[in-house]
Each structure stands twice: as structure tokens, then as C-alpha cells.
Amino acid sequence: MTEKQKMLAGELYRASDPELVQDMARCAAWLAEYNATSTAPEAERTQALRQQLGAVGDNVSVRAPFHCDYGFNIFLGDNVFLNFGCVILDVAPVHIGHGTQIGPGVQILAADHPRDPALRRQLLESGRPVTIGETVWIGGGAIILPGITIGDNAIIGAGSVVTRNVPAGVTVAGNPARTLKSTR
């Protein structure tokens, strides 16, 4: 398997592999262009998103600056909004459902690292998919860790660090995020 195939399969891989470095460089060039179009018409910006991301629904708004590793592992539903400064480390698939709103400075991290220091010394890393349901609201500055699933209609409080899955209809906040309220 190539390092890219390992990455996509969620196995340990080396991000310094030339193919992955080239993919990241291509994405960095695209990001520079995309982030420079902040005053362009929304239709033009959406078309630019569709050139790099895995899928982009209708009526999507991603405000600059936006940052990601590859782009091709990001899947946005209809009516998704990402505010200024969103970071998505997409070494594994990141799915964001219809109608979800994400505040400024939010980090969605699919990238992970081994717990074993010997493996880290070998510069190995991995990824775990992140799935965010429909009509979710994620407050500014929140951090979503690798492998997390957030259910439909959930609310993530500003500044929260989400270390566990969040069921549908639940409001969480804090570091680590804890349940505040459930509409279930």
C-alpha cells in the first residue's frame, strides 16, 4: 500500500511521503487562491470549493481564511456555514450535515498520532473520521477531536473541546465538553 492508501484506510502512515506532500502543496496553493476571493460573489466561491473539496452542497458559505490539509476528504451538505478561521485537518473523511453552522476559529481534527512514543519517533500518524450531523451549531473556538460523531441538532458551546461523541439533540460545553441539556 502507498502511504496515501494507508492514510485513507485509517492506518499508520508517513505524512512526509512525496505523494502526500504534493497533495498538501496543491491544496495550499488552492487555499491561497480561495482565501483571496473573500469579496467575490458567493457562486464563484462555491465553484472554487467544488474544485477542491470532496462534496459541496447548495447554498454553502465558507468564510476566509479557511484552512485544511487536503480538501478532498471534506464533504459539506446543503446550507452549511463555516465562519472565519475554520481549520479542518482532513487526513480522514470529515462529513458536515445539511444546515450545520460552525463559528469562527473552530478546529475539526481528523488527524491523530500514536500513543506509543516509539511509533511517534518514527513520524507515523493516522486519522479517524469526524461526522457532524444536520442542523448542528458549533460555537466559536470549539475543538472537535479525531473520531468524533456529533448527532443531528446538537449544540457545541463556544470554546468546548469535544472528546466524546455527542448524541442528537444534546448541548455540550466545556473542556472536556460535558452535557448541559438534552432535548431528547
Automatic annotation (TrEMBL):
Which UniProt keywords are given for this protein, alphabetically ordered? Acyltransferase, Repeat, Transferase
- Database matches in Pfam families: Hexapep (PF00132), Mac (PF12464)
Residue span, Maltose/galactoside acetyltransferase domain:
4-58
Gene3D superfamilies associated with the record: Hexapeptide repeat proteins
Output the superkingdom of the source species: Bacteria
Checking CDD domains in the record gives: LbH_MAT_GAT
Q: Which InterPro entries match?
A: Hexapep (IPR001451), Hexapep_transf_CS (IPR018357), Hexapeptide_acetyltransf (IPR051159), Mac_dom (IPR024688), Trimer_LpxA-like_sf (IPR011004)
Family listed: Belongs to the transferase hexapeptide repeat family.
Name-wise, this protein is Maltose O-acetyltransferase
